[in-house]
Structure formats: C-alpha cells, structure tokens
Design goal:
It is built from four helices and five strands. A hairpin with a 2-residue loop joins strand 3 and strand 4. The radius of gyration is 24 Å and the shape is elongated. It has a five-stranded antiparallel β-sheet. By secondary structure, the chain is of the alpha+beta class.
Length: 137
C-alpha cells in the first residue's frame, strides 16, 4: 500500500482502507512497545553490570569476609557461608533480597529473610551493605 493512500482517506468509506489503517496503527504500537522493552532491558543490564563492578571493586574486602560474587545477566549475587544476597534488576527497579542458606526452601533456594525494592544502583549498593552488616557482626 502506498504511503499517499494511507495519508489521504478515500472519498467514500471503505472497510479495506479502515482495516489497513488499523493494521498499520497496531504494527506501529507493537514496534514502539518492543523498542521500549529492548531499551529497558539494556538499561537493566547496564545497571547490573555497574553494581557488579562496584561489588567486586575491593577483592581484599570480599576475601576478608569470605564472600563470593557472581553475575548472571540482570542479577548480582553475593554469597557468604550462611547467606545469599541477590539483587535483580527489572523494569528500572532493583529488587534486593537476602536469604539464609541454613534454611533451604523446597526448591533448593535460600529461604528469603528480607526483600526490598529500590530505584537506583547506589540505593541497591547501600541496601546490600545494610543487609551484609546485619549478617556480619
């Protein structure tokens, strides 16, 4: 269908024209949604990378407290002997949770003790530090 036909409506009503206009509108909306989702995923991934870089920034601190760090796509995981601290980025938010490895759920995951949602990498790092301070006395 030529662009000029879409821009100027026919002089008489036409189901075909209305259908084509609706299909084009839906396609444009779908493309916009997919593009927005792709941009959000890129942002979430970049935020997870930024948090990971901040957490691994002092290997001596990690070793001193027996901590290991892992990074899987949108998730940064900090583990101690008895706990697992997990920060997951999705839809522009960070969900920070700490679980007790001594209390294992039926799925094999650490039982969650606390969970909070924050808006920034800095807030996620601050919350991770708070949870870590609660576990390391």
């Amino acid at each position: 269908m030529s662009l000029s036909r879409r821009v100027s409506p026919p002089s008489t009503l036409s189901l075909k024209h209305a259908f084509e206009v609706e299909q084009a509108r839906r396609e444009a909306e779908r493309f916009a949604r997919e593009e927005a989702e792709r941009r959000q995923q890129e942002e979430d991934l970049a935020r997870a990378e930024q948090l990971y870089d901040a957490v691994i920034g002092d290997p001596g601190f990690l070793a001193e407290h027996g901590l290991t760090v892992d990074w899987r796509r949108y998730t940064v995981i900090l583990e101690g002997e008895t706990f697992r601290l997990r920060t997951y980025f999705e839809a522009g938010k960070a969900s920070v949770a700490i679980g007790d490895k001594r209390q294992v759920a039926p799925t094999g995951a650490a039982s969650p003790l606390k969970r909070e949602e924050v808006d920034s990498v800095a807030d996620a790092l601050r919350l991770m530090a708070q949870f870590l301070a609660d576990e390391i006395h």
